[in-house]
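R.M. (postdoc): so does anyone remember the format we settled on? I'll just put the structure tokens first.
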């Protein structure tokens, strides 16, 4: 089904998947394909949705500013995967030209997350493609199938798999040692547990604690404990913005036994209390 979204600063053509979706099937669910044109003045809406967005810049530049990264400029050929469920800040373009891109929207499932971990073990979800025409063809094949009156959901899943596989082939090879990649993946899956510590990470990675610390200092430029805190604070910000859960509940879900320690760490990093952050940024 075709749908057009038009505003003063954006023009996007969507082809939406109308096939019946079986949530029990172990496959990639393609929700939609979009051909997008964004003007320099375009600004995102602060929102959180249970989807994964896979995009490729075709022309123009995606220059923008975020609080976390500062000034960023991405050019044609940049491939990116983003989790729309953890969008934590506004996105304001400061480019001087129109941005043209393709993107597909995927249902964010455990199956998809496991697949992404397999294809991108170092967690590198953004890079300049080595062969843009091949990736572009993968996007366009998905679009062609969605244009049909009765799209084949299984075939769409196979095409999405091919797109992610092609991207994994084209990603720059990681310089991070396999042991550190294994440690990072383990941390992302367990950082919310309250008894989580360096010893558990080292065992999961198959190295000593001292070796783990050395790897983090060399490749991540921080300690393992600091990296855990960053993961916890990212989740805390998301929960404060998009839920009405109590501060104590959020502290527990982010791996803190006591809300006092959580609030102290939060103020140390953001200069305000969790309540003040929610008052300013909550929806």
């Amino acid at each position: 089904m075709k749908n057009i979204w038009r505003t003063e600063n954006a023009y996007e053509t969507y082809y939406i998947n109308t096939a019946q979706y079986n949530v029990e099937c172990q496959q990639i669910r393609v929700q939609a394909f979009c051909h997008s044109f964004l003007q320099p003045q375009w600004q995102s809406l602060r929102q959180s949705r249970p989807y994964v967005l896979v995009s490729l810049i075709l022309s123009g530049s995606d220059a923008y500013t975020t609080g976390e990264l500062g000034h960023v400029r991405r050019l044609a050929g940049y491939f990116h995967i983003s989790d729309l469920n953890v969008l934590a800040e506004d996105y304001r373009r400061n480019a001087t030209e129109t941005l043209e891109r393709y993107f597909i929207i995927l249902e964010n499932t455990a199956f998809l997350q496991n697949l992404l971990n397999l294809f991108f073990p170092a967690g590198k979800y953004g890079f300049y493609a080595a062969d843009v025409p091949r990736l572009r063809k993968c996007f366009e094949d998905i679009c062609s199938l969605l244009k049909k009156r009765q799209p084949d959901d299984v075939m769409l899943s196979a095409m999405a798999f091919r797109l992610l596989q092609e991207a994994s082939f084209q990603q720059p090879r990681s310089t991070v040692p396999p042991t550190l990649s294994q440690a990072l993946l383990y941390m992302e899956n367990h950082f919310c547990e309250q008894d989580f510590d360096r010893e558990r990470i080292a065992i999961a990675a198959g190295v000593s604690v001292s070796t783990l610390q050395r790897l983090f200092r060399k490749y991540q430029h921080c300690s393992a404990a600091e990296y855990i805190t960053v993961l916890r604070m990212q989740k805390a910000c998301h929960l404060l913005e998009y839920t009405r859960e109590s501060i104590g509940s959020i502290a527990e879900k982010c791996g803190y036994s006591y809300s006092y320690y959580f609030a102290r760490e939060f103020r140390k990093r953001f200069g305000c209390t969790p309540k003040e952050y929610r008052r300013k940024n909550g929806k």
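R.M.: ...and that's the designed sequence above, right after the tokens. Also worth knowing: DSSP finds ten helices and ten strands in the chain. The chain has two domains: 2-170, 178-281.
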